[in-house]
Amino acid sequence: MSRTHRRTGILAGAILAALALAPGAQAANAKDCPNGGVVRFGVEPFDTSAKLVPIYDHIAALIGEKIGCEIKVFVATNYNAEIEAMRAGKLEIGEFGPLGYVLAHQVAHAEAVAAFAGKDGKPDTYWASLVTYPTSGIKTVADIRGHSFAFSDPASTSGHLFPAYGLRKAGLDPEKDIKALYAGSHTASFEALYNKKVDAGELNSEQLESATQRGHYKDGDLVFLWKSDPIPTDPISVRGNLAPAFKARLTEALQTLDLSTLPEADRKIMGLGGQRFVPQTDAAYNGIRDLVTTLHIDLKKVS
How far is residue 170's CA from residue 145's CA, in Å, rounded to a whole number? Predict the structure, then answer.
Protein backbone atom coordinates (compact mmCIF):
# COMPACT_ATOMS: atom_id res chain seq x y z
CA MET A 1 0.00 0.00 0.00
CA SER A 2 2.72 2.41 -0.68
CA ARG A 3 1.91 5.92 -1.76
CA THR A 4 5.55 6.40 -2.70
CA HIS A 5 7.09 2.97 -3.05
CA ARG A 6 4.72 0.86 -5.20
CA ARG A 7 2.74 2.44 -7.99
CA THR A 8 0.60 0.30 -10.24
CA GLY A 9 0.80 2.14 -13.51
CA ILE A 10 -0.32 -0.99 -15.31
CA LEU A 11 -2.59 -0.52 -18.27
CA ALA A 12 -5.94 -2.15 -17.64
CA GLY A 13 -5.59 -4.30 -20.76
CA ALA A 14 -2.35 -5.80 -19.45
CA ILE A 15 -3.46 -6.51 -15.90
CA LEU A 16 -4.89 -9.96 -16.47
CA ALA A 17 -1.63 -11.07 -18.03
CA ALA A 18 -0.07 -10.37 -14.66
CA LEU A 19 -2.63 -12.41 -12.75
CA ALA A 20 -2.08 -16.05 -11.86
CA LEU A 21 -4.74 -18.12 -13.59
CA ALA A 22 -6.13 -21.10 -11.74
CA PRO A 23 -8.11 -23.88 -13.44
CA GLY A 24 -11.78 -22.96 -13.67
CA ALA A 25 -14.87 -24.82 -12.61
CA GLN A 26 -16.44 -26.55 -15.57
CA ALA A 27 -20.22 -26.51 -15.85
CA ALA A 28 -22.87 -26.80 -18.50
CA ASN A 29 -23.30 -23.18 -19.51
CA ALA A 30 -26.58 -21.48 -18.78
CA LYS A 31 -27.90 -19.22 -21.54
CA ASP A 32 -27.10 -15.96 -19.72
CA CYS A 33 -23.49 -16.75 -18.79
CA PRO A 34 -21.28 -13.84 -19.96
CA ASN A 35 -18.08 -13.99 -22.03
CA GLY A 36 -19.09 -17.10 -23.96
CA GLY A 37 -19.87 -18.98 -20.76
CA VAL A 38 -17.05 -17.74 -18.50
CA VAL A 39 -17.37 -15.80 -15.22
CA ARG A 40 -14.08 -14.30 -14.04
CA PHE A 41 -13.44 -14.22 -10.28
CA GLY A 42 -10.63 -12.01 -8.95
CA VAL A 43 -9.00 -12.58 -5.56
CA GLU A 44 -6.66 -10.23 -3.71
CA PRO A 45 -3.24 -11.73 -2.83
CA PHE A 46 -3.76 -11.89 0.95
CA ASP A 47 -1.65 -15.07 1.02
CA THR A 48 0.59 -16.85 -1.47
CA SER A 49 -0.88 -18.10 -4.75
CA ALA A 50 0.14 -21.63 -3.76
CA LYS A 51 -2.19 -21.36 -0.76
CA LEU A 52 -5.01 -19.44 -2.42
CA VAL A 53 -5.41 -21.14 -5.80
CA PRO A 54 -6.57 -24.56 -4.48
CA ILE A 55 -8.98 -22.90 -2.01
CA TYR A 56 -10.57 -20.59 -4.55
CA ASP A 57 -10.62 -23.22 -7.27
CA HIS A 58 -12.79 -25.24 -4.88
CA ILE A 59 -15.04 -22.22 -4.28
CA ALA A 60 -15.21 -21.58 -8.04
CA ALA A 61 -16.43 -25.13 -8.60
CA LEU A 62 -19.21 -24.62 -6.05
CA ILE A 63 -20.32 -21.35 -7.68
CA GLY A 64 -20.16 -22.90 -11.14
CA GLU A 65 -22.41 -25.76 -10.07
CA LYS A 66 -25.01 -23.29 -8.79
CA ILE A 67 -25.14 -20.92 -11.76
CA GLY A 68 -24.22 -23.20 -14.65
CA CYS A 69 -21.24 -21.12 -15.83
CA GLU A 70 -17.53 -21.83 -15.99
CA ILE A 71 -15.74 -19.89 -13.21
CA LYS A 72 -12.12 -18.87 -13.74
CA VAL A 73 -10.14 -17.65 -10.74
CA PHE A 74 -7.47 -14.98 -11.01
CA VAL A 75 -5.19 -14.27 -8.04
CA ALA A 76 -4.04 -10.70 -8.54
CA THR A 77 -0.40 -9.66 -8.36
CA ASN A 78 -1.35 -6.82 -6.01
CA TYR A 79 -4.48 -5.24 -4.57
CA ASN A 80 -4.79 -2.47 -7.14
CA ALA A 81 -4.41 -4.84 -10.09
CA GLU A 82 -7.66 -6.52 -9.07
CA ILE A 83 -9.45 -3.17 -8.78
CA GLU A 84 -8.15 -2.11 -12.20
CA ALA A 85 -9.25 -5.42 -13.72
CA MET A 86 -12.83 -4.90 -12.52
CA ARG A 87 -12.75 -1.26 -13.61
CA ALA A 88 -11.76 -2.47 -17.11
CA GLY A 89 -14.66 -4.94 -17.17
CA LYS A 90 -12.32 -7.94 -16.91
CA LEU A 91 -13.87 -9.40 -13.74
CA GLU A 92 -17.46 -10.24 -12.87
CA ILE A 93 -16.75 -11.21 -9.23
CA GLY A 94 -14.08 -9.86 -6.90
CA GLU A 95 -13.07 -10.59 -3.34
CA PHE A 96 -11.57 -7.32 -2.13
CA GLY A 97 -10.23 -6.35 1.25
CA PRO A 98 -12.47 -3.80 2.98
CA LEU A 99 -10.33 -0.80 2.00
CA GLY A 100 -9.83 -2.16 -1.51
CA TYR A 101 -13.59 -2.61 -1.75
CA VAL A 102 -14.27 1.00 -0.77
CA LEU A 103 -12.00 2.07 -3.62
CA ALA A 104 -13.41 -0.53 -6.05
CA HIS A 105 -16.95 0.62 -5.25
CA GLN A 106 -15.91 4.18 -6.00
CA VAL A 107 -14.10 3.57 -9.29
CA ALA A 108 -15.02 0.09 -10.60
CA HIS A 109 -18.76 -0.42 -9.98
CA ALA A 110 -18.07 -3.07 -7.33
CA GLU A 111 -21.10 -3.95 -5.20
CA ALA A 112 -20.75 -5.97 -2.00
CA VAL A 113 -23.28 -8.82 -1.95
CA ALA A 114 -21.83 -11.54 0.30
CA ALA A 115 -19.22 -12.26 2.96
CA PHE A 116 -17.79 -15.21 4.85
CA ALA A 117 -20.00 -16.22 7.75
CA GLY A 118 -18.95 -16.57 11.37
CA LYS A 119 -20.18 -19.32 13.66
CA ASP A 120 -23.21 -17.18 14.48
CA GLY A 121 -24.28 -17.10 10.84
CA LYS A 122 -23.52 -13.38 10.49
CA PRO A 123 -20.72 -11.80 8.42
CA ASP A 124 -17.41 -12.67 10.03
CA THR A 125 -14.69 -10.32 11.28
CA TYR A 126 -10.92 -10.39 11.68
CA TRP A 127 -8.30 -8.15 13.32
CA ALA A 128 -5.10 -6.29 12.54
CA SER A 129 -2.14 -5.76 14.84
CA LEU A 130 1.25 -4.15 15.31
CA VAL A 131 3.96 -6.63 16.28
CA THR A 132 7.67 -6.95 16.88
CA TYR A 133 10.02 -9.76 17.90
CA PRO A 134 11.14 -10.20 21.53
CA THR A 135 14.76 -9.07 21.06
CA SER A 136 14.00 -5.91 19.02
CA GLY A 137 14.10 -3.65 22.08
CA ILE A 138 10.64 -2.31 21.19
CA LYS A 139 8.25 -2.47 24.15
CA THR A 140 5.42 -0.13 23.10
CA VAL A 141 3.96 1.26 19.89
CA ALA A 142 5.65 4.60 20.64
CA ASP A 143 9.00 2.78 20.65
CA ILE A 144 8.60 2.02 16.93
CA ARG A 145 9.63 5.61 16.19
CA GLY A 146 12.72 5.60 13.98
CA HIS A 147 12.57 1.84 13.38
CA SER A 148 11.90 -0.11 10.20
CA PHE A 149 8.29 -1.27 9.80
CA ALA A 150 6.68 -3.62 7.27
CA PHE A 151 3.27 -2.80 5.82
CA SER A 152 1.81 -5.18 3.26
CA ASP A 153 0.14 -3.23 0.43
CA PRO A 154 -1.10 0.39 0.23
CA ALA A 155 -4.67 -0.73 -0.51
CA SER A 156 -4.81 -3.29 2.32
CA THR A 157 -7.13 -2.74 5.26
CA SER A 158 -5.31 -4.77 7.89
CA GLY A 159 -1.92 -4.33 6.22
CA HIS A 160 -1.96 -0.54 6.01
CA LEU A 161 -5.13 1.31 7.06
CA PHE A 162 -5.48 -0.11 10.56
CA PRO A 163 -1.74 -0.30 11.32
CA ALA A 164 -1.45 3.36 10.31
CA TYR A 165 -4.34 4.12 12.66
CA GLY A 166 -2.63 2.21 15.49
CA LEU A 167 0.58 4.16 14.94
CA ARG A 168 -1.25 7.50 14.91
CA LYS A 169 -3.06 6.64 18.15
CA ALA A 170 0.39 6.36 19.74
CA GLY A 171 1.41 9.76 18.36
CA LEU A 172 3.45 8.52 15.40
CA ASP A 173 3.14 9.78 11.84
CA PRO A 174 3.41 6.66 9.63
CA GLU A 175 4.69 8.84 6.79
CA LYS A 176 7.55 10.42 8.74
CA ASP A 177 8.27 8.74 12.08
CA ILE A 178 9.04 5.20 10.90
CA LYS A 179 11.09 3.62 8.13
CA ALA A 180 8.22 2.13 6.15
CA LEU A 181 8.63 -0.88 3.87
CA TYR A 182 5.74 -2.01 1.66
CA ALA A 183 6.34 -5.72 1.24
CA GLY A 184 3.52 -6.38 -1.25
CA SER A 185 1.53 -8.97 0.71
CA HIS A 186 0.75 -10.04 4.27
CA THR A 187 2.95 -13.10 3.83
CA ALA A 188 5.87 -11.00 2.63
CA SER A 189 5.57 -8.52 5.50
CA PHE A 190 5.38 -11.37 8.01
CA GLU A 191 8.43 -13.08 6.50
CA ALA A 192 10.38 -9.81 6.66
CA LEU A 193 9.63 -9.68 10.38
CA TYR A 194 10.19 -13.43 10.89
CA ASN A 195 13.64 -13.11 9.31
CA LYS A 196 14.34 -9.88 11.26
CA LYS A 197 14.68 -7.80 8.11
CA VAL A 198 12.48 -5.19 9.82
CA ASP A 199 12.04 -4.29 13.49
CA ALA A 200 8.23 -4.25 13.56
CA GLY A 201 5.31 -4.77 11.23
CA GLU A 202 1.66 -5.49 10.62
CA LEU A 203 0.08 -8.89 11.26
CA ASN A 204 -3.54 -9.87 10.82
CA SER A 205 -5.38 -12.82 12.29
CA GLU A 206 -5.59 -14.69 8.97
CA GLN A 207 -1.84 -14.44 8.30
CA LEU A 208 -1.18 -15.54 11.88
CA GLU A 209 -3.11 -18.74 11.18
CA SER A 210 -1.30 -19.27 7.88
CA ALA A 211 2.11 -18.73 9.52
CA THR A 212 1.19 -21.17 12.28
CA GLN A 213 0.22 -23.81 9.71
CA ARG A 214 3.52 -23.46 7.84
CA GLY A 215 5.53 -23.71 11.07
CA HIS A 216 6.70 -20.09 11.15
CA TYR A 217 4.85 -19.07 14.28
CA LYS A 218 4.22 -20.34 17.78
CA ASP A 219 3.15 -18.49 20.91
CA GLY A 220 5.94 -16.23 22.17
CA ASP A 221 7.64 -15.73 18.80
CA LEU A 222 6.21 -12.21 18.50
CA VAL A 223 5.23 -9.40 20.85
CA PHE A 224 1.79 -7.90 20.17
CA LEU A 225 1.94 -4.15 20.75
CA TRP A 226 -1.58 -3.26 19.58
CA LYS A 227 -4.66 -5.01 18.18
CA SER A 228 -7.54 -3.45 16.30
CA ASP A 229 -11.21 -3.75 17.01
CA PRO A 230 -12.98 -6.35 14.82
CA ILE A 231 -12.90 -5.52 11.10
CA PRO A 232 -15.65 -6.69 8.71
CA THR A 233 -14.22 -9.44 6.56
CA ASP A 234 -13.64 -9.18 2.81
CA PRO A 235 -16.80 -8.60 0.80
CA ILE A 236 -17.56 -10.82 -2.17
CA SER A 237 -18.53 -8.26 -4.78
CA VAL A 238 -20.13 -8.32 -8.21
CA ARG A 239 -19.60 -5.78 -10.95
CA GLY A 240 -22.59 -3.50 -10.77
CA ASN A 241 -23.10 -3.09 -14.50
CA LEU A 242 -23.69 -6.79 -15.23
CA ALA A 243 -26.88 -7.73 -17.05
CA PRO A 244 -29.62 -7.36 -14.39
CA ALA A 245 -31.05 -10.90 -14.62
CA PHE A 246 -27.64 -12.56 -14.49
CA LYS A 247 -26.48 -10.22 -11.71
CA ALA A 248 -29.51 -11.17 -9.60
CA ARG A 249 -28.93 -14.89 -10.19
CA LEU A 250 -25.23 -14.63 -9.40
CA THR A 251 -25.94 -12.59 -6.26
CA GLU A 252 -28.43 -15.15 -4.97
CA ALA A 253 -25.93 -17.95 -5.56
CA LEU A 254 -23.14 -16.14 -3.70
CA GLN A 255 -25.34 -15.20 -0.76
CA THR A 256 -26.33 -18.82 -0.14
CA LEU A 257 -23.11 -20.65 -1.04
CA ASP A 258 -22.35 -23.65 1.19
CA LEU A 259 -18.60 -23.89 1.95
CA SER A 260 -18.77 -26.87 4.29
CA THR A 261 -16.78 -29.03 1.85
CA LEU A 262 -13.73 -26.78 2.21
CA PRO A 263 -11.10 -28.42 4.45
CA GLU A 264 -11.00 -26.94 7.96
CA ALA A 265 -7.38 -25.81 7.51
CA ASP A 266 -8.39 -23.83 4.42
CA ARG A 267 -11.30 -22.22 6.23
CA LYS A 268 -8.90 -21.14 8.99
CA ILE A 269 -6.55 -19.49 6.49
CA MET A 270 -9.52 -17.55 5.16
CA GLY A 271 -10.57 -16.57 8.69
CA LEU A 272 -13.83 -18.43 8.12
CA GLY A 273 -15.55 -19.22 11.43
CA GLY A 274 -18.66 -20.62 9.77
CA GLN A 275 -19.25 -22.75 6.72
CA ARG A 276 -20.93 -20.52 4.17
CA PHE A 277 -21.28 -17.15 2.49
CA VAL A 278 -24.03 -14.91 3.81
CA PRO A 279 -25.53 -11.65 2.49
CA GLN A 280 -23.50 -8.48 2.98
CA THR A 281 -24.18 -4.83 2.11
CA ASP A 282 -22.18 -1.80 1.06
CA ALA A 283 -23.17 0.00 4.28
CA ALA A 284 -21.16 -2.51 6.34
CA TYR A 285 -18.01 -0.73 5.13
CA ASN A 286 -19.01 2.79 6.14
CA GLY A 287 -16.73 2.42 9.18
CA ILE A 288 -13.81 1.90 6.79
CA ARG A 289 -14.82 5.05 4.93
CA ASP A 290 -14.92 6.96 8.23
CA LEU A 291 -11.41 5.77 9.10
CA VAL A 292 -10.14 6.83 5.66
CA THR A 293 -11.52 10.30 6.39
CA THR A 294 -10.07 10.36 9.92
CA LEU A 295 -6.60 9.50 8.63
CA HIS A 296 -6.90 11.94 5.70
CA ILE A 297 -6.14 9.16 3.21
CA ASP A 298 -6.63 10.14 -0.42
CA LEU A 299 -7.96 7.04 -2.14
CA LYS A 300 -6.70 8.37 -5.48
CA LYS A 301 -3.15 7.99 -4.15
CA VAL A 302 -3.57 4.30 -3.36
CA SER A 303 -5.04 3.48 -6.75
Answer: 10
What digits encode the pLDDT tens for the residues 215-254?
999 999 999 999 999 999 999 999 999 999 999 999 999 9
- For the chain, the domain total comes to 2
- Rounded to the nearest 5 degrees, what angle is found at the Cα of 287, between the Cα atoms of 281 and 293? 130
In eight-state DSSP terms, residue 198 is S
Residues 40 and 95 in one domain: yes
Q: Do the domain assignments include residue 36?
A: yes
Strand order in the sheet with 148-151: 179-182, 148-151, 200-204, 128-132, 223-227
pLDDT 10s digits, 51-108: 899 999 999 999 999 999 999 999 998 889 999 999 999 999 999 999 999 999 999 9
**Looking at the chain, which runs of residues are DSSP E strands?**
20-25, 38-43, 70-75, 93-95, 110-116, 125-126, 128-132, 148-151, 179-182, 200-204, 223-227, 231-232, 235-239, 277-279
- Are residue 141 and residue 237 in the same domain, yes or no? no
Contacts of residue 195, defined as CB under 8 A and 6 or more positions apart, other chains included, come to: none
Task: Tell whether 173 and 205 lie within a shared domain.
Answer: yes
